Amino acid sequence: MIFFFSCLIFLSLGFFVGRFFKIPINATKQISWVILLLMLFCLGFTVGSNRNVLQNIRSLGLQAIIICFATVAGSLLAVKLYLLKGENHDR
Amino acid sequence: MTVKIILTVILGGILGYFFPQYSTSMEPVISISLLLMMFFVGLDFGQDKNIFLQIKKEGKVFLAYPLLIAFGSLFGAFVAGLFLPIGILESLACGSAFGWYSLSGPLLGKLVSDELGSIAFLSNLFRELCSFFLIPIFAKKSQKADTINPLVFASGGATTMDSTLPVVSQVSGPKTTLAAFVSGAVLTILAPFLLQLFAFMLNY
């Protein structure tokens, strides 16, 4: 919960800085890309180092992957159908 | 971009497997880098002068996307549950976290069973990892930066409010990023209620 609010605070902080100062978008994109890769590396690291999670992947991973694919596919399908309906509506 | 993301996660995973003693120092790095990226996403919003006008004009659409994403996820989980040994309600419970693995795993583990907790944790962790790869793929297909493309963030579910938001911001315009943030926030609010509802139904 504390982290959630910290995220909001940093987001609004960035917003106000961006509003009052002209900042080159390309530079910020490059910096945050590097930070993103650092975060992804650490995320992979914590999963790889957690023996408990790895053991669970072996026994329950297949079911988890199927649920993951089903939910992602369901969400994409729902949005796609909505967009298609909108296109037909416009004509 | 997707390839670099996949390789980075895998590299981290392999190194983590062989040097698990360093994993405790990773958690603060994740939190700090996430906060820094939120700052940069905010910068992006700030540069766009018309962003609030856009919300005013398309407010309803902003709310339609998370509801569609939620409905799609639950539908997918229901269909998967028809074929899986864990059962339909259990599958729905896992799907109703929309990628929030740090909540669904412990919650369902405590309220229902350790096994369901583990499946919920893994399926939602996979969903977050999946969307790190899928977001750039779907963004590539649409070149229009000035419109909202909900397909970009549909896979991310609740995670598009925090962990996957920087990816959305990286590959698409501020309007899609804002829609992704709103969608992630709505799903983040929705997830705990649905999780508890399914946990309640499973217990009675």
Would you write up a description of this structure?
Chain A is mostly helical and 91 residues long. In chain A, 92% of the residues lie in helices and 0% in strands. The longest helix of chain A is centred in the C-terminal third of the chain and has 40 residues, at 51-90. The mean pLDDT of chain A is 87. Chain B is mainly alpha-helical and 204 residues long. Chain B has one domain. Helices cover 78% and strands 0% of the residues of chain B. Chain B is built from ten helices and no strands. Chain B has helices spanning 2-18, 26-47, 51-57, 59-83, 88-95, 101-111, 114-141, 150-154, 165-171, 174-203. In chain B, α6 (101-111) packs antiparallel against α7 (114-141). The longest helix of chain B has 30 residues, at 174-203. Chain B is globular, with a radius of gyration of 18 Å. The mean pLDDT of chain B is 89. Classes of the chains: A mainly alpha (91), B mainly alpha (204). The interface between A and B is large, with 66 and 85 residues.
Shape field of chain A? flat
Structural class from helices and strands of chain A?
Answer: mainly alpha
Distance between the termini of chain B: 47 Å
Overall shape of chain B: globular
Tally of discrete structural domains of chain B = 1
What are the secondary-structure elements of chain B, in order, as H or E? HHHHHHHHHH
